[in-house]
Amino acid sequence: MLLILQLPLSFIYSQKDEPVISESIGKEFLPVGSYPVGIGINSVTNKLYVANQFSNTITVLDGNTNNIESTIQVDNFPYDLEVNPYNNRIYVTNRGSNTVSVIDGSTNQRLSNINVGESPVGISINPSENRIYVTNLGKNSSLSIIDGISNKVTGTVELNGLFYGVSVNPLTKTIYLSNIKNHTILVLDEKTKNIVNNISVEKIPTGININYKSDLIYVTNYLSNSISVIDGKTNKINSTIKVGQQPVDTIINPLTNKIYVSNLGDNTVSVIDGTTNKKIKDLSVKPNTDKNNGNNDPILDIPINLNFPLLANKLSLNPDTNLIYITNTVANGVLVIDGKTDRVVVQLFVEINPENAGTIECNNTKVPSQSFWLYPINTEIKCTAHASRGYSFDFWSNMISDNKNPITLNVTDNNLLVANFKPAISTETYIGMVAAIIGSTSIFAGWYYKRRERSYLNTSMNRIDFTYDALKKDRLEGVKQLEEIRKEITNLFKKGKLTDSHYNILDKRISELINTLLRTE
Predict the structure, then answer these.
(1) 74: how many CB neighbours lie within 10 A of its CB?
(2) Rounded to whole angstroms, how far apart are CA atoms 420 and 357?
(3) CA dist 409 to 91, 379, 381, 383, 384, Å?
């Protein structure tokens, strides 16, 4: 998978001007189409793309809200996909129609279908060359080479075997292909397409991923329940790591140097320390649901006894947020893993009713209204509703119906918590009290506090703009300094020195400048 290196962001996800209610409410997973396999993310736009094999569609999820943004029709049996963040194009292998669909990520429109070999499955992109490589798993196994500018096949490499996975290293100009028939990894020179090496691994090599920094290649061995680690400099096996049952895919976080492996046989994800190449843990990703709870295609009669490669839980990762996404064909959904804790997480949406009548604080952290917070499944949290002036807390609704405040909750799935408030006194009484009590002292105090809040806003905004102007030629340092400023304004917000609106203005400005730095060539 292709990753864009960025720094971690906050785990509060604002949803201003977006509906809070999501189709994921009451579920552990994000619902998509029927039998999802391939998955990819554009970390620049924070858009997630899922290939639904039996719906013949691509589901587009907004990573800021986890809501479905669009559903795009493609060719028959879309299997895997890859995202090029440089031009915001998504390429989808359609194994049933022997094509690759090209999608414009800015419009969510399918641009074209490209004819390739028989039963295309694996796909990888070299973004610097704008070339796409596709493995065709049919009787005459081959590698199709697509020009990303013309969207035409410019070459085909005939292969001897059954080739499933493919990954290209744009730094070393090397292509790696997994041969599930001969249990080998074929190494090609990207420029000449000549065979450089043929490396024997364990049984049924499937997924391939590359750590560009260390030039280590990680290969999942489906029938050996292991990962082979290949040194890209020597093309020798560095180590072999035992993982869960029937591993099919792997993804690397270059910022944390952790490797995640999806194991189809026991519904787990193995977490590996890339520094020591030792397994840290096996994480269960089996959703608490039966198959009928998924979003099945009502037209197609889907067989339930399917095995690899028709079933394959694929992985994708957003290094910005350190969130890992894995498809699950049983649930017809996507599960989310927090890379900080290496646990499956669910989202708790919060809402204030009426708007601006108060605030919610969960586990001593103020959570803005119309946003959500990620918690590991089965986490106990304590939430307190704080009323604004002129209101008093009334009751909780949606996730729980109760008038206790604070309230203790056990978070088991994606859910919505609404704090309902009521006027503390009538409007007429309140106006009379305000008129009688407020004098010059209170007027001055109000003016002083508003002036102080405005001062924090202006000072922070000037600092943000100055940092961007000073460091826009040093992109990585600029992003780092802007993230430090983000932490500082978040602390000011938590301490009550910034209002919701001022915090959102500053946070939005930082995000815009970071995106500008990352898009600068």
Answers:
(1) 25
(2) 8
(3) 42, 8, 5, 8, 11
Instruction: Give dist(CA 221, CA 201) in Å, integer.
Output: 8
Q: In this structure, are residues 327 and 38 in contact, taking their beta carbons and an 8 Å threshold?
A: yes
Contact in structure between 93 and 83 (CB atoms under 8 Å)? no
- Tell me if residue 187 falls in helix, strand or coil: strand
Give 1-159+297-340's CATH code, choosing from 3.20.20.70, 2.130.10.10, 3.30.420.40, 3.40.1170.60. Answer: 2.130.10.10
> What are residue 333's DSSP bridge partners?
31, 328
Coil, strand, or helix at residue 343? strand
The 8-class DSSP code of residue 293 comes to G
299 φ/ψ angles, rounded to the nearest 5 degrees: -90, -40
CATH class of the region 346-435: mainly beta
Nearest one of 180, 277, 286, 300 to 231, comparing CA atoms? 277
In sequence order, the 6+-apart residues with CB closer than 8 A to the CB of 475 are: 517, 518, 520
The reply to whether domains 1-159+297-340 and 346-435 share a CATH topology is no
Closest by Cα among 409, 416, 421, 336 to 379: 409
Among the ranges given (231-235, 271-275, 493-497), the one the predictor scored with the smallest mean pLDDT: 493-497
Q: Which residue has the tokens 């609704």?
A: 397
Distance of CA 410 to the CA centre of its chain: 24
Q: Amino acid identity, residue 439?
A: G
Q: What is the CA radius of gyration of the chain?
A: 25
Nearest-5° Cα angle at 370, 364 to 371: 55
How far apart CA 290 and CA 70 sit, in angstroms, is: 26
CA atoms of 344 and 326, how far apart (whole Å): 10
Give domain limits for the chain. Answer: 1-159+297-340, 346-435, 438-519
C-alpha 261/C-alpha 167 separation (Å) is 16
CA distance 147 to 154: 6
Q: Give the helix/strand (H/E) hosting 196.
A: strand 195-200
Query: 145 pairs with which residues across the strands?
Result: 133, 155
How many whole angstroms separate alpha carbon 399 and alpha carbon 378? 14
- Tell me the CA distances in angstroms from 207 to 139, 165, 167, 391, one per residue in order: 20, 5, 9, 56
Token reading at 56: 């013949």
CA distance 191 to 380: 55
Name the β-bridge partners of 416: 349
Q: Which pLDDT tens digit goes with each residue over 398-449? A: 988 999 999 999 998 888 999 999 998 755 565 655 565 555 445 544 545 5
Angstrom distance (rounded) from CA 99 to CA 467 = 47
Residue 181 has pLDDT above 80, yes or no: yes
